Amino acid sequence: MPPRGLVKAKRAAGYIGEMLSERQMVAVLERVAVGIGDDAAVLAGGLVLASDMLVEGVHFRRGALDAFAIGQRAGGANLSDMAAMGAEPVCMVAAFGLPDGYDEVERLAAGIASHGVPLVGGDLSRAGAVVVSIAALGRTVRPVTRSGGRPGDVLVVTGALGGQAVAGYTAPVAPRIAEGRALAAVASAMIDVSDGIAADVERLAEASGCGAVVELERLPRAAGASVEQAATGGEDFELLAALAPGVDPPAAVTVVGWLTAEPGVRLVDAAGDPQPLRGWEHFA
Prior knowledge:
Helix content is about 25%, strand content about 25%. The protein has helices at about 5-15, 20-30, 65-85, 105-115, 165, 175-185, 195-205, 225-230; strands at about 30-35, 40-45, 45-55, 90-100, 120-125, 130-140, 155-160, 190-195, 210-215, 240-245, 255-260, 265-270. The chain has a six-stranded mixed beta sheet, with helices on both faces. Strands 8-10-7-11-9-12 form a six-stranded mixed beta sheet, with helices on both faces. It starts with a helix and ends in a 16-residue tail after the last strand.
């Protein structure tokens, strides 16, 4: 099976359903500016591609979310990846896997489109559970990857953390598109906080070849959220960015730590003692 990145690149280049020649493969790869390992792929010219999948029983329960809310969450998660790259979304397509008798496709689609980004097409298939898979297309003049951070960069986060954990992962998702575009002008690295900052800061730091320190008492907490929920809860879809020292943030953010030359990530309490907190890992 070919690597996922190459499959995505092939589809983006229009070579679906046929074997690529060596020349065509090289041409496709030359057009991929940012590939596997980031929040989205970036092709030459600033075209940004991202995809996400929500599976019933893994990411949501139909008893807790109605069809509109499921679609809203799926669209928001995908658009959050656009925000993390500093991209402006252009459109989305959606593929649904649906159990026999499921009749709420229109409500799913309405939820996806509720973010104001056009839903322009998709596909349907029979499935044993509700599956919502979305791909988003966007553009950016300055893509921000996870890998540009440097030791000494300040770590900042938008919004508040832990709100989804408090709400039982039923609160509406609000992707930080405007904040992502503003931060893209100055950030050295950026990632969306989808699996909890405890997990996502490690991903950003490792991609940048750095370590990191996060001061837990600085985490901006949603109403009712504990420090642990703010650090590990996940699905808040805020943005975590690295800024060079002295840079004035162009969006409302909270400073939560910094990148270090020493490897490893430390989440420390008010006394400076490391705390063994971990975010969500899909295949742990």
